[in-house]
C-alpha cells in the first residue's frame, strides 16, 4: 500500500483505499461497497462510494504503480504479454459499456460489460497490469449517454485490437521490453495490430481462424487448406506446458510464409492428439526461432484464463456494482492490485521455501485464505452488526417510498 499512498493527498482516502483492498482480499461471499464497508467497521458505505466516485485521485497512475510492482517481483526475460477480454454480465442499460454482446464468461450473447486486459506472464507468476473498457458503438454514438456515465467528450469507438495496441504501447513506452505477445483470434485476425507489433520489434503468436488467408511461396491459401497439405513427418509431438494433470502434449507443425515485410513469418498449427481438432496461429519474430519457442508461447494461454479466474474469484474483479466510468476504472485497478499482491506473495514463497513432501506449493487461493484468517480478519461486536441492519432497512425503506411515489405520479 505504501507504493500507492502518494497518489492520495489526504489521509482519509489512504485509509479507505487500504480498507477497500483488504476487503477485496477478504473471504466475503459478495464484494461491493456495502459489504466491504460493513466488514471494515465503517458506519455506512458512503465513504467507499466517495472513494470510487468523487475523491480526487487518478486511477491510471495507480494502474502504472501496479504494473511496476508486478514487473519488479515477477520479471522474467522470457515473459509473454497476453491480451484478452472478459465480460461481466450486468442488468439494465445504464452501466457504462453495457449492451447485449457475446461474452466468453457466459458463453453466449448476454447483457454484459466487456473489458480488455493486458496480462504479464513469466515463470514466477502472472498478473494483469493494464485494462481498457470496451465501449460499443451504441455508446460512442450517443454523447448524452456517455456524458451521463462520466465519459469525456472526446470518447470515440475503438475495437478490441485497438485497445490491446494501446495497452501494449503504454507498456513499451514505459521503458519495458518483452519478447512475445499472444492472444486469441480477435487479435490475430487484425492486421493493424500485427503490423504495430512488428514495427515495435515485438514477436507474436496470435490465434487465427481456420479461414484466415496466408501467403506461402506457392501462393495464397486458407489456413485449413495448408494443414491438409502438411506431410506426416512434419508433425512433431511437443508439450504445451504442464497442466493440472501433467504435460499437455499436442502435435505441432509450422509453415514458413512469404511476406514482403522483414522478419520471420510463420503459420503454426496445433493438432489435438485425441480428437484431431486443429488450431492455427500467425507468428512473427525479428529472427527465426525454434518451433519449441513458438509452442511455449502458444501453450501458455492458460495463464490469462487463470488470471481472470483468480482475479474474479479472489479479488472481486467482476463484482463491482458501479455505473460510471470513473468508478469502474478505480474498482478494477484496485482489484488488479489485490490480485497482484497474491501473485507476488506466491512467487516469493515458492522462491524462499520449497513445498514439503506430500504438499503442493502454496496457491493464490491458499495464500488468500491464510492471509485473511491470520492477518486481517476484523472482529466487530453486535452493536456494529445491528447498526448496519438498521442502515440497510432504512435505505430500503427510502427506496421503496420513492418507488411508490413515482408509480403513483405515473398513474395520475
UniProtKB/TrEMBL annotation:
Domain Transposase IS701-like DDE, chain residue ranges per copy: 10-214
Span of the signal peptide: none
InterPro entries, sorted: IS701-like (IPR039365), IS701-like_DDE_dom (IPR038721), RNaseH-like_sf (IPR012337)
Protein name: IS701 family transposase
Lineage: Bacteria, Bacillati, Actinomycetota, Actinomycetes, Kitasatosporales
